[in-house]
Amino acid sequence: MPSPPSVLLFGVGSIGAVYLHQLQQAGCIVTAVCRSNYDAVQKNGFTLRSERFGTITYRPDHLVRTVADCPADAVYDYLIVTTKSFPATSNSNSDNSQRQPLAAQLQPALAGRPSTTIVLAQNGIDIEPEIATAFPANPLLSGVIYLPATQTAPGIIEYPETLNLLELGTYPADAPAAHKASARRLADLMIRGGGEVAILDDIQTARWSKLLINASWNPICALALCTDGDFLRSSDPFAHDLVWGIMMEIVALARAMGVAGVDEAAAEKRFAIAKRRAEAMTGREPSMLQDVRQGRLFEVEAIVGNTVRVGRKWGVAMPRLETVYALAKGRYDSMVREG
């Protein structure tokens, strides 16, 4: 019998915990790198309360605090990164000195192991070059996630909706056939475990499509400390115009760069979701708002900072998003100073 697939999950919070369950259901042997929730997971495992999977408690096959704690001779079929994205190329002077670059954190599991496929299941744009440069021989997959789960306490995952979509593609888009085959194998495993996967020829289209939501709603809600529905109801039409204006700046940048599928129709489709929540007197907390409320650092650089820097590089005016970035970055740095 062939050996079961071996997976190393790096950063097992809300998304990683759901993927841990799916991969185990698919027959994989999973090692979880748990950082802030290590003690709780070691004692009690994960408890998942889910519309899709029910209420279950489970444990990783192996549990470590850091990649360096993995066995020195371990070779993994996949190394899946589900941490928040804090790029080493960030312009922050306050956080880079305190955070080891992602490539350095992954190095112990990848040195001399070109067969391991790296999967960046993270938010943002322009996050792949650091890893592609550090590990040029390894297949590299990039993933865009739609999975509304939250870790409400260490090891406790609330997943109240059924949405579970992973959009997956190689980086670069014209990667060798063997890399594309690795993407298909991972997709098969995730589907077998109960999720949904779409393999795309160019994953960057999906990244930019999600950016319409992430770069607008995430920082706005984090700064306003309210849900998307609450924000839209707060100052109509001004709230509406701010969100829509940011989306149109992203559309303009995508058009200048030749990114397909990121247009007014795509923006309206995504904006309509928040509009329906506002009309129903409900709302959703984006991940940045959850992070700010729980005192955690948030992905301002990968989602917003990288976007405005690309905008300046391409000569596309983005005054609304630049303003939001400056404010969100100020909040981020104050959180770093406060410890």
Describe the 3D structure:
The chain is an alpha/beta fold and 339 residues long. The protein has twelve helices and twelve strands. An eight-stranded mixed β-sheet has the order 5-2-1-6-7-8-11-12. It is globular and about 60 Å long.
Largest sheet: 8 strands, mixed
Stretches with pLDDT under 50, minimum 5 residues: 89-98
How many DSSP E strands? 12
User: Percent of residues in helical segments?
Assistant: 40-55%
Q: State the secondary-structure class.
A: alpha/beta
Please state the CA-atom Rg, rounded to the nearest Å. 19 Å
Give the averaged pLDDT, no decimals. Answer: 93
Query: Distance between the terminal alpha carbons, to the nearest Å?
Result: 51 Å
Numbering strands along the chain, what is their spatial order in the largest sheet?
A: 5-2-1-6-7-8-11-12
Provide a count of the helices: 12
Oligomeric organization of the protein chains: single chain
How much β-strand is present in the residues?
15-25%
